[in-house]
Design goal:
- The protein is mainly beta.
- The strands form 2 sheets. Strands 2-10-9-4-5-6 form a 6-stranded mixed beta sheet, with no helix packed on it. The chain has a 4-stranded antiparallel beta sheet with strand order 1-3-8-7, with no helix packed on it.
- Strand 4 and strand 5 form a beta hairpin.
- The protein is globular, with a radius of gyration of 13 Å.
- The termini are far apart.
Length: 114
């Protein structure tokens, strides 16, 4: 069973950058498509970016051009580079599969505020 641990969140000013990391205790190779999700207070969890095992990426319109997702199957890791951050990006960020979900990790808090 894959277990996921997210890290890299923090408090940054608008326009700043963060790089999130997701470490898996088991092989993520079986999860053909990995994604980063986020959940803002009072809102449903949403998928913001996904990456297939071959490297194909898809982004939500709200983050397109600002976020970059990547994965390293050898290291069992998924990353999310977030640039030009906006207050509306404030949320708890999680990684997980897309076509197949495993138990959710605790997430990492991202707060964008001046």
């Amino acid at each position: 069973q894959v277990q996921l641990v997210e890290s890299g969140g923090g408090l940054v000013q608008p326009g700043g950058s963060l790089r999130l990391s997701c470490a898996a205790s088991g092989s993520i190779f079986r999860l053909a498509v990995m994604g980063w999700y986020r959940q803002a207070p009072g809102k449903q969890r949403e998928l913001v970016a996904s990456v297939a095992s071959g490297g194909t990426t898809i982004y939500a319109d709200s983050v397109k051009g600002r976020f970059t997702i990547s994965r390293d199957n050898a290291k069992n890791a998924v990353y999310l580079q977030m640039n030009s951050l906006k207050p509306e990006d404030t949320a708890v960020y999680y990684c997980n599969g897309v076509q197949k979900l495993v138990p959710w990790g605790r997430g990492t808090q991202v707060t964008i505020s001046s």
